[in-house]
Amino acid sequence: WSIAQRPPLLLTTLPAEAERGPPLLDVQWGPHSDRLALAGDDGRIHLVRLAADGTPTATDMLVGHTGPVRALAFAPDGAHLASAGDDGQVQVWLLAPPPVLSDTFTGHRGAVRSLVFTADSGQLLSAGDDATARIWSFPGRAPPRVLGGHQGPIWQVRPFPQRDAILTASADATARVWPLDGGPPELLLGHTDAVWVATPRPA
């Protein structure tokens, strides 16, 4: 859609091979706005390339998860795509053609619902149903730093660079700010039900 138009104008639809089948659970733009990644209930990830005129072409299908894929994240440098879902795995795909699975991170118990790379593409943040967020060094095999303390699933994790921290939102009706220096988290209280999203104000 072009939202510069009034009313919004439908520019194109996805190729049939990328849009048919089970429901989509996440859609993410690549950092250069010329590529889309789509994840669905069938555990597959579709990559779609957009031409200059907006014409979409399905280029690749990534198969590695054993359950629904609920979260996608492109690295800011455009070199990798991370995926995660109900199988508890965080998979990282090297996108240089053809795409290949380069890393699989395990440790979450239950579905992983949120993923994001840090701005330098050097760390990957994940969070999910086991009430933990994890900071993975990337690339590499170092054990992750585990942020535990929420009393329910974490729906979203985001970097909070202005505070040199990580921000999480949880079903336990709190958001938390986790200092990267290892100090105790700051609880953001006041909600009476699940906190689905939390977003730092841009610098």
Concise account of the structure shown:
The protein is mainly beta.
Describe this structure in words.
- The protein is mainly β.
- Helix content is 2%, strand content 46%.
- The chain is built from one helix and 16 strands.
- The protein has a four-stranded antiparallel sheet. A four-stranded antiparallel sheet has the order 5-6-7-8, with no helix packed on it.
- The model has no long low-confidence stretch (mean pLDDT 91).
Attribute tags:
46% strand, 4-stranded antiparallel sheet, mainly beta, 203 residues
The biggest sheet amounts to: 4 strands, antiparallel
Beta fraction of the residues?
A: over 45%
User: What is Rg?
Assistant: 17 Å
Q: How would you sum up the global shape?
A: globular
Count of DSSP strands: 16
Q: Please tell me the overall pLDDT.
A: 91
**Helix content percent band:** under 10%
**End-to-end separation:** 28 Å
Order of helices and strands: HEEEEEEEEEEEEEEEE
Please identify the structural class as seen in this structure: mainly beta
Number of helices: 1
Assembly state:
single chain
Order of strands across the widest beta sheet?
1-2-3-4
Secondary structure elements and their pairing?
Layout: H1 16-19, E1 24-29, E2 35-40, E3 44-50, E4 56-63, E5 69-74, E6 80-85, E7 90-94, E8 100-105, E9 112-117, E10 123-128, E11 132-137, E12 145-148, E13 154-160, E14 165-170, E15 175-179, E16 186-188
Antiparallel strand pairs: 1-2, 2-3, 3-4, 5-6, 6-7, 7-8, 9-10, 10-11, 11-12, 13-14, 14-15, 15-16
